[in-house]
From TrEMBL:
Cited InterPro entries: ABC_transporter_permease, MetI-like, MetI-like_sf
Domain annotation ABC transmembrane type-1: ranges: 76-286
Family: Belongs to the binding-protein-dependent transport system permease family.
Keyword Membrane carried by entry: yes
Stated name of the protein: Sugar ABC transporter permease
Membrane topology listed for this record: Multi-pass membrane protein
A Gene Ontology term for the protein's cellular component: plasma membrane
GO biological process, one term: transmembrane transport
Keyword Nuclease: no
Pfam families attached to this UniProt entry: BPD_transp_1
Amino acid sequence: MSSPTPSSPQRTLTAVYAWLLLLPAMLILLAFTHLPTITTLIDSFYSTPKGRRAASWVGLENYAVMAADPIFWKALFNNLWYALASIPLSIGLALLMALWVNEKLIGRGFLRLAFFTPTVLPMIAVANIWLFFFTPQYGLLERLMLALGFGSHNWLGDPSTALACVILVAVWKEAGLFMIFYLAALQSFNPSLREAAAIEGTPRWTFFWRVQWPLLMPTTLFVLVNSVINAFRTVDHLFVLTRGGPDNASTLLLYRLYEVGFKYWDTAGAAALTMVLVVLLVGVTLLQFFTVDKKVHYQ
């Protein structure tokens, strides 16, 4: 017996009720996401107001100045390397940790807590911890290198290693959070899958590659999107570790945006840089959803 069709007033009341439920979230998105983005886009086409001089229309001049700035291209290049290194490292490490602590181990709860602890620490605190590790002469890493017979090295003061140190700190901080998502996904799998593989004598690597990894693809997509966003919005630990140095070797886009907007007080230039960053993030996210999403759902 088919259910009765709702009347027109009832459908209207249901639609109004649904929109009222969505209204708070829509207002928050409008006030703190969409309107600031539109305002920033408009500001990027005006000059920076100075004292009594009001902002004036300059068109694409702010973008031209930014394109002619070698530090901008250095920051963009550094950020791309930062993303290419930190994203696979953090995701791979998170997956390995999740697979390990998902097994029946002695002290498994302690291991999970130890892996997750860096995630709950503020990035400034994490940066100060690693600053002690990287300090020349008496830092923990330096003492270890000297004990192994290697010479002293200024890890944060060398342009060839400064960015790598920043990447290492970010991976240590983020891998624990991604591990939680992978661990939750692994625990949601039907135990009969592992039992059937054990009966068939399937090697552990084959079971992971043929069964677990395909089932983990939705979680991987979620983690991948978040890791890409994190890779382009990293700025906290740079203030403690390197301040973008030496010679802009570790300057990232968001730190460059801070310098332009708050150190040099060029708000129009910062607005243009913000729009480039937004377009870059939106483009990468859309690329992920239109390419990786097909593999996630086996299309």
